[in-house]
Predict the structure.
Amino acid sequence: MTVATAHTTPSTASAQRRVSVLGATGSIGLNTLDLIGRDSAAYDVVALTANRNAEALARLAIAHRAETAVVADESQYEALKAALSGSGVEAAAGLQAVVDAAAQPADWIMAAITGAAGLRPTFEAAAQGTRIALANKECLVSAGEVFMAAVASAGTMLLPVDSEHSGAFQAIDDGSADGIERIVLTASGGPFRDWPMDRLAAATPEQALQHPNWSMGAKITVDSATLMNKGLELIEAYHLFPVAPEQLGVVIHPQSILHCLVEYADGSVIAQLSCPDMRTPIAYSLTWPNRMQTPTERLDLAKLGQLTFETPDVARFPALRIAQDALAAGGCAPTVLNAADEVAVDAYLQGRIGFASIPALVEATLDASEQSVGRHLPSTLDDVLEIDYAGRALALSLLPKFNKT
Ligand code: NDP
């Protein structure tokens, strides 16, 4: 547990920084490229990757004059090649090609592939010593100890992109990590914050995808509705900052203006505030230790009038408690938690299970995994991927019990 990686000496700024974006066609990827495009002379775009969205990827690669564009899904290779024809951008496809893209020499890389699929490429970027802007929270949730060790051994730097962790990083960026007593992450509460239990059970994917404050990919939006996202973020924070699990807290803050509070031994609390726009934390990761101009709406507290806070209701949103338990249990519990949640959210989005079955399936998988997967702490990336695979298989085997009738 250290923030030391986030406080290493910044490299000397060169005329053009070589940057890559993994998950370029997603919500974080597009916001990142929006910022890069606002100062395009400062950046040399090396590689952009996507899963299967070949046309959107090709458009981005051409617009940003990328050297390489890569789709993970090999069936999209011809479409990508055709869309890039005559542009000078190299096309590639396949899982290994995404890892190879992450390995290309760069000064900075945005790790924004969603899910455990982002692990291998992000580990590869770390091994190359590339400075990593980390949006892919799964690297820390599924593989926290292994990933932090890889970052430390490469001597590279990790910059958190999640708004709450960027907020904490900004609050302790003066190096005063010593006297931290507590770190409190805020959660909007999602679209169902006020819903009673019986109504929650019938919440549809369409309703869950309507986040009140943020526009994000489908997986994280559903996780925000169940509060699993906040649980995953607690695990992230545990690995990023020098705190024990019991020093981490969550408070519901429906306006999503205040992102994180860092409480110090002398009673001081340092908070980071900004309007809910991911371009603010992404910009901080892109230009740290400097700040760049962003189009984020400016905060007008008088116009807002009030900021409100509530205690999370873990009876209605048990996913938060389940994630906290997995963090406290340690070992491979967070890896299984993440794998089961990916299966559960996918099943929910496909209409196979109800909203309340997402945390129920995750908890059932964690309970059953103690017997079949064990509780040992993964020590290598392959170990993590094996546990992830076993966790998914277990969740899939339990899924029929939760199927809608
Ligand atoms: P999106 O679903 O919007 O985008 C995901 C990106 O990853 C797309 O480019 C997608 O390509 C690509 N991708 C998906 N699956 C694979 C795969 N198997 N192999 C290679 N590439 C893949 O997600 P978000 O941008 O919302 O989130 C990305 C990450 O950032 C997640 O880990 C999320 O938790 C985290 N995060 C997101 C925030 C947000 O505001 N959106 C805030 C904080 C963290 P394609 O378009 O082809 O499907």
